[in-house]
Amino acid sequence: MPAEFELCPGRKIGGSNPCFIIAEIGQNHQGDIEIAKKMIRMAKDCGADCAKFQKSEIEHRFTKQALERPYTSPHAWGPTYGAHKHHLEFSHQQYRELQQYANEIGIFFTASGMDEMAVDFLHEINVPFIKVASADTNNIPYLEKTAKKGRPMVISSGMQSMETMRCVYQTVKKHNPNFTFLQCTSAYPLPIEHVNLSLIPEFQKEFPDIPIGYSGHEPGIHVSVAAVALGAKVLERHVTLDKSWKGSDHAASLEPAELAELVKAIRTVEMAMGSPIKQMLPCESSCHSKLGKSVVAQKPLKKGEILTLDMLTVKVAEPHGVRPENIFKLVGKKITVDLEKDATIIDTMISG
Questions:
Q1: In 3D, which of 98, 130, 99, 94 has the Cα closest to residue 112?
Q2: Helix, strand, or coil here: 135?
């Protein structure tokens, strides 16, 4: 069983704990703090455990040349990439306001730290855990600095190899025992054939002492539900209020009705996972009383006869008697009463 740890105050992941569901708002708020608050409320109302954003210190994350390049995408919020990113980036004070709002309505709040200075800020405002985006998963200096903060870490694996993930594991483990890997393919939206859910059990085998989760960008909810059935202990999905809005992530996001259905489906599947012990359950007693079979006499039997297999058969009988799987144990035993054909054979009728 993978290790469990407290990801947020009072909320553990791993082991038999419920899947922790992250509603990734990211930058789907369009740069509008009121929309961001509506999305936090939507995540809470739909049953998600956490509302998550993406925090960047833009001049620290990007080079000057990267920020100055023209940005002509239909999703652009400005003429250059820098202007576009600045439009979508909330200030420190706005982050504190959003965090306070999330606390007031009762949902965990965090963000991906998209650079080292962003991680410093998130640590300063005391988020419960740091999300490591796939673009920083092989950024070893960043990982070491983030791990040393001592906060739990949720680490996506998009664009990485298993060899790289082994390196990531060793890097983080030296400084911080509380982290999880998410199977992730970095495409938006993600074609179903590239989801690779088979990597969830592979991650579980490769890293048996940490919980494994899934970060999905595929259409719909079915694949994400399957990920939980495979053992994902954290699930992250992008969310939006409207898939038609400007922004490249909206098409790969879930609208409120889809998120609510996803949460409901996950909790149903978790209940359905049940117990690994196979046994007849109390809820099966009615069916068993009507249809359960027993060993009966194939022909009339006389008291004192030694039973042979041709004297016995299996039928639905009243009352119930010896279970069918025990029929061979009766061979060679003595019957202690006279029985008519089709009479139920009960344990107390057997000697020897």
A1: 130
A2: helix
pLDDT at residue 1 greater than cutoff 90: no
Helices (H) and strands (E) counted in the chain, each on its own, are 13, 14
Structure-token match 């399957």, residue found:
226
- Chain Cα centroid distance, residue 55: 24
Residue 189 preceded by cis peptide, ω within 30: yes
Phi and psi at 272, nearest 5°, equal -70, -25
**b (16+ CB within 10 A) / e for 267-280:** eeeeeeeeeeeeee
pLDDT for res 3: 84
C-alpha dist (Å) from residue 65 to 59, 87, 197: 11, 18, 38
pTM above 0.90, yes or no: yes
Q: Write the DSSP string, 61-124.
A: HS-HHHHHSB---TT-SSSBHHHHHHHHPPPHHHHHHHHHHHHHHT-EEEEEE-SHHHHHHHHH
Give me the amino acid identity at 304: G
**Structure confidence at residue 2 as a pLDDT band (50, 70, 90):** low
* Angle formed at CA 189 by CA 185 and CA 193, multiple of 5 degrees: 60
Q: Are 345 and 322 in contact, with CB atoms under 8 Å apart?
A: yes
Are 8 and 126 in contact, with CB atoms under 8 Å apart? Answer: no
